[in-house]
Amino acid sequence: MLDAVALVQRRSPYFLVSEPLPPPGWARRGALYLCRAVRAAEDLDRLSRRPGRPASGWAGVVCFQGTAGPRGSYIPRVSDGGEGCLHYGAFAVYGDPELLGEVRAALAADSIRPAPAAGESARSR
């Protein structure tokens, strides 16, 4: 996850914010936010993670969420997948749809592509 954030940052610098109280092993199951404007960690941590269209607070914000840690918590947008979330195996990215497109393009430029969803082949992506 950290390498992916660095790749995106090299293409378009964003404000990088860590979750307010990172848990042990945060690199494997924690969260990092990329933002177009300065945002407080506590404000970002309060954003809704319900599936579907992101709330207006997500404008200009994406969250890189580690999914490789044991005892991961249930996060609807990440755990349930679907529209508005890019899964890359050990991490997922969700948030502002426009910024998600920029993240996808930046990672694809380094041959990093989202993992196929269950029942979907890599070729169909």
What does the main sheet amount to? 5 strands, antiparallel
Structural class: alpha+beta
Give the strand tally. Answer: 5
Poorly predicted sequence stretches spanning 5 or more consecutive residues: 121-125
Question: Which geometry do the CA atoms define?
Answer: globular
> Termini, distance in Å?
21 Å
DSSP helix count? Answer: 5
Mean pLDDT: 81
SSE order, as H and E? HEHEHEHEEH
Strand order of the largest sheet: 1-2-3-5-4
Counting copies of identical and different chains, the oligomeric state is single chain
Q: Into which percent range does the helicity of residues fall?
A: 25-40%
What does this structure look like?
The protein has 125 residues and is an alpha+beta fold. The protein has one domain (2-115). Helix content is 28%, strand content 18%. It has 5 helices and 5 strands, in the order H-E-H-E-H-E-H-E-E-H. It has helices spanning 2-11, 26-29, 41-45, 76-79, 97-108, and strands at residues 15-18, 31-35, 61-66, 85-87, 91-95. A 5-stranded antiparallel beta sheet has the order 1-2-3-5-4. Strand 4 and strand 5 (91-95) form a beta hairpin. Helix 1 packs across helix 5. The radius of gyration is 14 Å and the shape is globular. The two termini are 21 Å apart. Mean pLDDT is 81; it is low at 121-125.
